[in-house]
Amino acid sequence: MARKISMKDAINEALDQEMTRDPSVIVMGEDIVGGTGSPGEADAWGGVLGVTKGLYAKHGDRLMDTPLSESAYIGAAVGAAACGMRPVAELMFIDFMGVCLDEIFNQAAKFKYMFGGKAQTPVVIRAMVGAGFRAAAQHSQMLTPVFTHIPGLKVVCPSNAYDAKGLLIQSIRDNDPVIFCEHKNLYAHETEVPDEPYAIPFAEANVVREGGDVTIVAYGLMVHRATEAADRLAREGVECEVVDLRTLSPIDMDAVLESVEGTGRLVCVDEASPRCSIAADVSAQVAQHAFKALKGPVQMVTPPHTPVPFSPALEDLYIPSAERVMEAVRATMVA
Amino acid sequence: MSQSSIVAIVMPKWGLSMEEGRVNEWLVEEGARIAVGDALLEVETEKIAGTVEATDAGLLRRRVAEPGEVYPVKALLGVMAEPEVGDAEIDAFVAAQAAALEAAAESEPEPRYHFVEVGGRRLRYADRGEGAPPMVLIHGFGGDLDNWLFNIDALAAGRRVLALDLPGHGQSSKEVGDGSLATLAATVVGFLDALGVERAVLVGHSMGAAVAMQVAADAPERVSGLGLIAAVGLGPEIDAEYIAGFVAAASRRELKPWVERLFADRALVTRQLVEDLLRYKRIDGVAEALGGLSRALIDAGQQRIGLVATARASRVPVVVIWGSADAIIPAAHAHALGDAARVVVIDGAGHMVQMEAASKVNAALLEHLG
User: Could you give the domains of chain A?
Assistant: First the structure.
């Protein structure tokens, strides 16, 4: 039996093992070492929540603390990738992406296409996503649909430690820019993780629970809400199949369609804002490609179309709950 | 009446990692007369679905386990007793069993797996039971020691049983050198050395059976018996398509049909079984290891390794066990050794016969090699 470690430790281990395997892998970001000039390695922070703690002691100057200027260091990471390095840049909160968006969606995403396939940009941008951290509207967003929308970017959002390690290793080895979204409320979540390096291919959804009545599609933290709902519904005799997308771009629509063809009912759970979301995209593709399989209306479970509230009471209501997923499942079964 | 006339039916432990099982349904009614080997309940674990078979004969008095509920290993599922045992006595028995289980849960569990360094590689192994000579279980191509999950505890009731992950497999080092049978056999001899085992009964499944025969040829003084289950090396035919498909499959959808070929009863291939195999196949080095091993095993759609003469030359007891519905290596190979081996062909079982017909395989091994 493999040991159980947290998602935070799994990400740290993926970075450590890839830095050990490939000297072109470098890590950069704000405070990822702990502040250049801090008195010692032992007290280095290793990032705002300690994800990169200990890596500086092992890999030294291949980790770089950057100035508080996202456009400067994300630009540097994109340029280094185009020149043959494999940088992993930590953007802290995905909400800060706006400051450096040109480097991501106009530069990194376009190089391969605009230079006739001759340029590769193997950069990974790690960023924390999601609400529930009492961090208010500017540090809590689930901006996965924004990046999924842009051709040339790959978008990953793991739901557990095992997937986080394998998907981050795959992201580093991939030759395209990857936006790697880490849900901050999953950092402490533990699963069994092999100590050896392994890569999980992109566009390979994970069926985390089998069931014949209703398909629930989710990613990130919402996978846990979906499985909780499925466990509770099973006691009422409703068997839900839960599909964890794992990667949003590319997306494994084959797995979703195969499941919906078996169940005839679909609930999409997404922590992103409802308009133009992953849930909306999956719903539309199912309507287009599996309409005849559907026995009832497709349901979407998302937050309301508002910024994330700072009030804890309102924030808890904002995030889709297992109860809301259960209501949506029942709504698909009315018809 | 004393309580010794009350017989407990408990949640079995199918393998080292099993902690609990979900009871799907009862297959017998209260009041039924049970014979040894009768199918009593269907149980599902994270790894596999299976049937709990009666290990004792008797009259089923009480179905304790409720369908749909999850019970820990050794939990009381049912009670058998003769009619003269009163209901009150059975009530007391059920209560005492529950209390004993609770007390046992508080004691320290023994480690499930161990690791040992052999020839520069780290090998994972399981070590159960006591008594010489030990039995060493060697899994097949793409397998691991959990392939013996229905066997290891039953075989270890009266002797020491060791099960290892071969190089390139399970949680052992993934580097397999030249991938040859000689390398794998040398690893098994090194494993015996490292554990201080002088002589052992070697039981191998599929490729592991070929490894066992090679060890018997290379180091005959170390082997006191051979159990060859659905063995590689006893004939030219093999489903080469399966080997290539298993090696190439990178997703659940690609892998599942190949894994189903291993079983006569495809319902045994659970989501978790496929997921565990995928997790193994994703590990760095596994693709290279399986590629190297498959090239050593197969050439132009046929087995490269012929071990009939080797096995016939062995002077130790040999039992060959096969499932009649084996889709990977034909069951006709079971008779390749002629009168040099006892042969047990189990009707209706597939290539993973030690999982599909565990109690019959265990009985055959204990009868001929015990």
Answer: 4-192 (3.40.50.970), 206-332 (3.40.50.920)
φ, ψ (nearest 5 deg) of residue A151 = -65, 145
Q: Which of B69, B110, B172, B251 best probes binding to A when mutated, by most A CB atoms within 10 angstroms?
A: B251
Q: Amino acid letter at A298? A: V
B272 touches chain A (CB under 8 A): no
CA B202 to centroid of chain Cα atoms: 13
pLDDT in tens, B134-183: 999 999 999 999 999 889 988 998 899 999 999 999 999 999 999 999 99
Measured between beta carbons, the chain B residues lying within 8 angstroms of A194 are: 171, 279, 283
Asked whether residue B238 falls in the same domain as residue B257, the answer is yes
**Are the CB atoms for A39 and A99 separated by under 8 Å?**
no
Nearest CB to A210 within list B113, B271, B283: B271
**Nearest one of A86, A29, A37 to A55, comparing CA atoms:** A29
Q: Which residue has the tokens 């396939």?
A: A117
- Cross-chain residue pair A198–B279, CB shorter than 8 Å: yes
A226 vs B132, more confident: A226
Show the tokens assigned to A114: 């605009």
List, in order, residues 6 or more apart from A93 with CB less than 8 Å away: A127, A128, A135, A138, A139
Both B85 and B150 in one domain: the answer is no
- Supply the CATH number for residue B206's domain: 3.40.50.1820
Do residues A78 and A107 make contact, with C-beta atoms less than 8 angstroms apart?
Answer: yes
B126: closest chain A residue by CA: A1
Q: What is the pLDDT of residue B1?
A: 41
Q: Is the pLDDT of residue A38 over 80?
A: no
Q: How many CB atoms lie within 10 A of CB B327?
A: 16
| Number of compact structural domains in chain B | 2
- Cα–Cα distance between B277 and B141 in angstroms, integer? 12
CB B310 within 8 A of CB B287: no
How many whole angstroms separate alpha carbon B35 and alpha carbon B54?
7
The answer to whether residues B184 and B293 belong to one domain is: yes
CA atoms within 13 A on the CB side of A201: 10
Give the structural domain span for B359.
114-369
Both tokens of residue B71?
């019970």
- ipTM attached to this prediction: 0.89
Q: B166: which 2 tokens?
A: 């071969």
Average pLDDT over residues A150-177: 98
The rounded distance, in Å, linking the Cα atoms of B277 and B293 is 17
Spell B18-43 as b/e; 16+ CB within 10 A means b. beebbbeebebeeebebeeebebbbb
Task: List alpha helices for chain A, DSSP H.
Answer: 7-21, 55-59, 70-82, 101, 111-114, 144-148, 161-173, 222-234, 253-263, 278-289, 312-318, 322-332
Q: Would an 8 Å CB–CB cutoff place B113 in contact with chain A?
A: yes
Taken in order B171, B228, B16, B132, the sign of the CA dihedral is negative
**Strands B39-44 and B20-26, sheet pairing:** antiparallel
Question: What is the distance between the alpha carbons of residues B109 and B122, in angstroms, rounded to a whole number?
Answer: 24
